[in-house]
Amino acid sequence: MTSRFSKGGKLIDRTKRLSFNFNGKNLFAYSGDTLASALLANNQLLIGRSFKYHRPRGIVSSGIEEPNALISLGSGGNFEPNRSATTIELFDGVKATSQNHLGSLEWDIGSVNNLISKIFPAGFYYKTFIYPRFAWKHIFEPTIRSAAGLGKAPKEEDSSSYDYFYAHLDVVIIGGGITGLVAANNLAKSGLKILLVEQKHFLGGYALSEEFKINNSNSFEFIKNLENELSDFENIRVKKNFSIIGIHDHSYLIGSENMEQMERNGQSSVRQRLWRIRAKHVILATGAIERPLVFAGNDIPGVMLCSAALEFYKLYGVSPGDRVVVLTNNDSAYSSVIELFNAGISVPLVIDVREKSDGNLPLKAKKLGIRVEFSKAISKVIGKKKVKAVELCSVVGEGAVLETIICDSVLMSGGWTSTLNLWSHCGGKIKWDSKLNTLVPDESFPSINEFGRSFITVLGSADGKFWPSDLFANIEKKLNILYSELNLKKTKTIRYDIDKSIKGETSSIFCVPEAADENLKAKSFVDYQNDVKLTDLRIAAQEGFESVEHLKRYTTLGMATDQGKLSNINGIKILANLLGKEINEVGTTTFRPPYTPISLGSIAGEARKELFKPIRRTPIHNWHQENGAIFEPVADWQRPYAYVGNNETLEQAIQREVKNTRNALGMLDASTLGKIIVSGSDAGVFLDLIYTNMMSSLKPGRCRYGLMCNENGFLFDDGVVVRLDEKTFLCHTTTGGSDRVYSWMEEWHQTEWWDKKVFIQNVTEEYTQITIAGPKARLLLEKLGGLKVDNVNFKPLDFFEGKLGNFEARVFRISFSGELSFEIAVPSKNGIAFWMRCLELGRELGLTPYGTEALHIMRAEKGFIMIGDETDGTVIPQDLNLEWAISKKKRDFIGKRAHERIFMQDTNRKTLVGLSLKNSTKKIPDGAYALKSGGKSAKDVLGHITSSYFSPTLDKPIAMALLKNGKALKGQIVDIPIENGNILKATVVEPQFYDIEGKRQNV
Amino acid sequence: MSDIMVYSNSLFNISALDHFGMLIIRAEINNRKFQKIIKDFFKLKVPSRLKISTNKNFYLAWMSPNEIMVITKNQDEIKTIKSSIENDLDQMEALVLDVSSSRTIFSIKGSFWRELLAKGSPINLFPSKFNSDSFRRTRLGQVSTAFWMIKEDEIYILCGQSYKYFFFKWLCNAADEKSINKFF
Amino acid sequence: MLKFICPYCQVEADETELTPGGEAHLKRMGPGSSDQEFYNYLFERKNPRGIHFERWLHSYGCGKWFHVVRCTKTMEVFGTYSAQETNPPKKILDIVKHRISSGKKIK
Ligand SMILES: [Zn+2]
């Protein structure tokens, strides 16, 4: 059994007991434990069930590479699935639950999959998608959906907060193991701004547990000293619980800082912080990960990596078992063996697949009296939910059993793989070193920065140097290169005195026994999390999958949440062996971000709820809110859609607002309309190029409605242009168009017509603009005072600037409602005061504010187009009968050349018409299709409805539509299919429904 | 019906200031004649790239190669200033606009303002890169802003008037004491 | 995440402060151009895997357009220059030539 020793454990504080809950059981642990060490200390070996076959699984590793021990953490708003138990620093009261089992963890009903594993072979998903088709939908999908999968999605909203942080640094050192710490110490005096990050909650890495002698002390004390020294440097920041999850173009790093401990104890209001870092240089001191070996039963709870067992013992005082059998292909396992043996754990046998080893460590183990068998392997592990024994066999052969050894734990070591994921995120290539049996960076194909230079230095075991003396030699050599690259003066050489005799080789045997029979292969797992077995790889190779990228997709090898940190190399090696090739020939898979999973919450950062997206408000916003406004988002703006009174529905409010404006007086907050100043001696010429109309001929003091097209000739914005004075124009745009049109003008000015002497300035926010519309509009302006508003002195399309009452104002006589109408702009800081003044003076005139829906209805009654309703990016002004706004005199304007294209003149283009319904009170659905009368198929479609309203003024539904050759359809009946197979019959009419002569606005 | 926008906690005091007047001056700002007119008028040099210059009456900020912004501490003067500088620049291609209503200035007091800004702006905020006469246009979160230092422990941030409610909420959220990443 | 030096501000602007504007140095075809010329101007865009000339806007900044020469394969940046240059400056073309001829292996 696994248990806690009475003494020891460098990271735990035995004076601080914590309680936690696993699957309903209350258990105890110590401060400093990880969830994994705490579970092992409580003899909880079985942690989860595998993805496909629901096989019992336990903890294999002690770090982020863990494939099995995925658990759900917390509850309610703190619930988070798929956390790996090995990376959770335990806190008091935490609730953890195992995942992926039907019924209980101990008695999983889904484990029948294990018995019928032949129905889930390699390529299962691909094959099932292809044949038989019905089987996927009716049999496999429902079964798989209920059986497979990881943790459940959270049901409640995430109760935590998240943050971003941007940082610019000279050097980021990734990895706070001994390599990273030594590198930081060497660079400290350079004055460079350095960030050192460590993904675990402690510094020192494996050198904490796998101790060695250095400079007359041991590595543990050496690390503590380095840590202390670093804290004295102003230019160095050291962060734990911090993973760099991606390195992107132009040396951009994304880091995730986990602060859930601080959040729990009230020191932080943020659970995770997403760092966005620009670094001039990156040092990868990311270390290495020990590989499992592939043999039958290698997934049974109790089978663990050697290095993990050593960490659990040295850092947390936890024993991996009482009788431990070790299987290795290298020397490094022996340091674990010796430590565990010395701790009093029984080690009946070390099985070494190599023919021999002359290393110091095996020698030392033998001297201690530990039995070591070379050229041997494990035929299979006996046990179901935990290890009971192993069967010894020869490495060569099919796995005939030589001896059965009773044990409760199997430790394995298949050598080490340098962690180079981050090296290749930005394009760096990696290669297999068949002497060291690890991946190494291919320095001739590095990740490069914007200057075309390599910006990543790989140090220590990440560079394939696993033994202390090699590692320090490597650090010294590589740092020297870095000094010259960064033009740094070398301060002084720090000498490291290390025992050079501890060394050893790793065999290339990853999979035993070499000629294992099919029964053994079917229980030999390569990828634990995705349940990929040796037999699956054999099938894939037989079926012709020769590239590792194909193999990966076909078998799902390395595609689980652990991204194959343990399984990839073994899988590639096995494929290479099956194909009779070298690893470098089959290729390694491409590492992509993220290196470790991060929460969606941290990606969202603060941008949720009211901070999700910027909202723009006019100066009248609060008044709208207090007076029943229902808001409508228009671009980033919030506009009142209608003001709903106490005793009316929304629909009634809209109808009331229209009627009131038509019969008396209405007022609209039009502040969101874009306002752009174009000023300079070439302003008129410039605007002639921007608008389809002639603007240079506009007289100062006058307004003109203008259209803007893009180079394709398509209409994209409209609005009233005012000539303020000889050299200054004020261009109004749509609400959605204010920023777009401003950028559009700037772009053309800066990149095409920079010879034109103009300045363009967006003054949208400077003015509160209010529309006063209705037969009594003139009366209100007279009451405000200061302007002669009669039809002679202030004609339609006139403009006035001066005092309106006490307000500095610009008044434009323009109408979008068809009523007598004035638009008045005042500086925004006076906006609300002016609005209140109008309300006060307008009360006895029946003044009522109206919203955007009433505005839209009134313009539709008049047949005025709306950008975004009548236009959709494929409509030219001619389609909307707006030829009158296109200058024939101008040599050029944006869109002119496009209008000359032959299909822009096609009579079959969709053109704007009105639609009239007889005897109907219901409006036509927006966007509905219109078909030829009696039409049944797609070829009978004439076009679609662009605007549709119930007109309170005419007391009937009205609509506009874009129909093929619309002009020729006037007077004809078209069919409009609506829900339930019903068809509305509409008559094609002119797209003006009310006051066609414009008598009302020209009074 | 003015909105009071004030927030404070143990690290920060945030408030919207509305007593400033602002002018935009568009012209070729490297032009000698222009520089002389500005210097004579404001008793301040045209600021160089990414800088802001100040005296007891004005701030002059570099906006782009053909734009400077004038900020006066007294809003009421802005009309007079506008018409006189317009007059002085009469013979040049120039545009002067009153933008006092277009923008809002927030003051952030508190020595951890760099940490607060680093939550939303991708620029380098180390004191060696951003200091007492720096003026930077950038984004903060999703909002277009510009900011500069007033004192060691105070900065002003400009944002569009229509964004001020949203941006104030953004600032208050970012100012949460227990979320400040002490870094600089 | 790209970054470019804005030639007007001389700051390293982050990609999130910029707006991309597609291929640079297009010649506008207006009235008088042939159908084919106009078609090419509207729709034929270079999208090379390699050296590319692009337009970018310093939108969260000085609001100016500028040109960038970069390699879309390696993400190297060779230089940035004003939007009012109708041809890439020789200085920048020399850098491109030098980097390519220096024989450095590109992934
Ligand atoms: Zn710029």
Please give a structural write-up:
The complex is a heterotrimer of chains A (1003), B (184) and C (107). By secondary structure, chain A is α+β, with helices and mostly antiparallel strands. Chain A is 23% helix and 28% strand. In chain A, strands 9, 10, 13, 14, 15, 16 and 30 form a 7-stranded mixed beta sheet that branches. Chain A has a 6-stranded mixed beta sheet with strand order 42-43-44-41-35-45. Chain A has a 6-stranded antiparallel β-barrel with strand order 46-49-48-47-50-51. In chain A, helix 5 packs parallel to helix 12 (468-485), helix 9 (332-342) runs parallel beside helix 10 and helix 20 packs across helix 25. Chain B is globular and about 55 Å long. Chain B is of the alpha+beta class. Chain B contains 4 helices and 11 strands; from the N terminus they run βββαβββαββαβββα. Chain C has a single domain (3-101), classed as 2-Layer Sandwich (Folate-binding fold), CATH 3.30.2270.10. The two termini of chain C are 18 Å apart. With 107 residues, chain C is an alpha+beta fold. Chains in contact: A-B, A-C, B-C. Chains A and B meet through strand 9, strand 16, helix 19 and helix 24 of A and strand 7 and helix 4 of B. The structure holds zinc ion (ZN). Zinc ion (ZN) is lined by residues 6, 8-9, 58, 61-62, 64 of chain C.
Gist of the model:
The complex is a heterotrimer of chains A (1003), B (184) and C (107). With 1003 residues, chain A is α+β, with helices and mostly antiparallel strands.
Keywords summarizing the entry:
heterotrimer, B: alpha+beta, Gyrase A, domain 2, Alpha-Beta Plaits, 2 domains, 6-stranded antiparallel beta sheet, 5-stranded antiparallel beta sheet, 11 strands, C: 107 residues, alpha+beta, 4-stranded antiparallel beta sheet, two-stranded antiparallel ribbon, globular, binds zinc ion
Shape of chain C: globular
In CATH, what is the homologous superfamily of chain C?
Answer: Folate-binding superfamily
Q: Give the distance, in angstroms, between the N- and C-terminal Cα atoms of chain A.
A: 97 Å
Strand content of chain C: 25-35%
- End-to-end Cα distance of chain C, whole Å, is 18 Å
Largest interface: A-B, 51 and 46 residues
